[in-house]
Amino acid sequence: MNTSESKNLIAAHFDINGNIIAGDGITIINFKETTQYKVIQEQITELNNDFEKVRQELNENQNNTQLEL
To answer: What is the radius of gyration, based on Cα positions, of the chain?
Structure first.
């Protein structure tokens, strides 16, 4: 990534535990504890459940063109 104009730019990365590690190794936050992460995780779970239902229905009704969602 190229940055043409910046102010107070700090390099950061996520570790395997979901922590944001900034600059000299200071832990900023555990991302998994934020409200946004929890909401996104719930949405992912719901979508995975919906996907599994559709996949199971497709397997059970391979000749049927109508699916109930």
So the answer is: 21
